[in-house]
Write a structure and sequence with these properties.
The chain is an alpha/beta fold. Helix content is 34%, strand content 16%. The protein contains 7 helices and 8 strands; from the N terminus they run βαβαβααβαβαβαββ. The strands form 2 sheets. The protein has a 6-stranded parallel beta sheet, sandwiched between helices. Strand 4, helix 5 and strand 5 form a beta-alpha-beta unit. Helix 4 runs parallel beside helix 5.
């Protein structure tokens, strides 16, 4: 039996569950507490409990773990010819004074968006001046839904502008990989594992 010690928020929990799913499939073990998400559907199917107990603790944010996700049955993502910009601010704004500039400034998003006009923007701080300025300057529509639906919708867009963090990472990882733009992690303090960039992603 695989038991997950979930930590963090949606993006982290999905990462932890995907890791458990890899182990479950490889070892023929059921998961005692699967994460309820349509992004990675799961139903325990192993008829015999082998007596092995695995307790997963941690965030598992390494490239080796990411490589193991390749055969998982993630939701099929449609493709739409749109731009989606994800702006993470919330908790990073609160920690800014203690740990340096963890969030991307407005000029990063402007460089990443480039000449694109129109599309969507999602953020945990929709009223922040950075978000409001980008909405007006690039004629973006605010997308406001559950974390799960936001990832699914954003992942379907043909151009994806990411922040750092696992939530944004899932937006980039799922769906189209041809035009994913993410921050140059060498320019910003990184609090997560070495998962940026994935192959083909463009650093900005």
């Amino acid at each position: 039996m695989v038991t997950i010690n979930y930590e963090g928020r949606f993006g982290n929990n999905l990462f932890q569950f995907a890791t458990a799913k890899v182990i479950s499939d490889k070892m023929g073990l059921n998961i005692s507490n699967p994460f309820d998400t349509k992004i990675l559907p799961h139903k325990n199917s192993w008829p015999v409990d082998t007596g092995d107990d695995i307790h997963l603790n941690g965030f598992f944010q390494t490239q080796e773990v990411v490589d193991s996700f390749s055969n998982l049955p993630f939701i099929e993502i449609e493709n739409r010819e749109e731009t989606f910009v994800h702006v993470r601010l919330g908790d990073l704004l609160e920690s800014h004074s203690k740990s340096g500039n963890r969030f991307m400034e407005q000029n990063y998003y402007e460089r990443a968006i480039g000449g694109s006009i129109g599309g969507y923007i999602g953020s945990d701080s929709p009223d922040h001046p950075i978000v409001q300025t980008l909405i007006k300057k690039y004629n973006l529509k605010l997308f406001n839904d559950t974390p799960e639906n936001t990832i699914i919708f954003a992942a379907s867009c043909s151009k994806k502008v990411l922040s750092l963090g696992t939530f944004s990472w899932w937006i980039g990882y799922l769906g189209n990989q041809a035009n994913v733009i993410c921050p140059d992690f060498q320019k910003y303090p990184v609090w997560h594992g070495s998962i940026f960039p994935q192959q083909g992603w463009n650093l900005c």
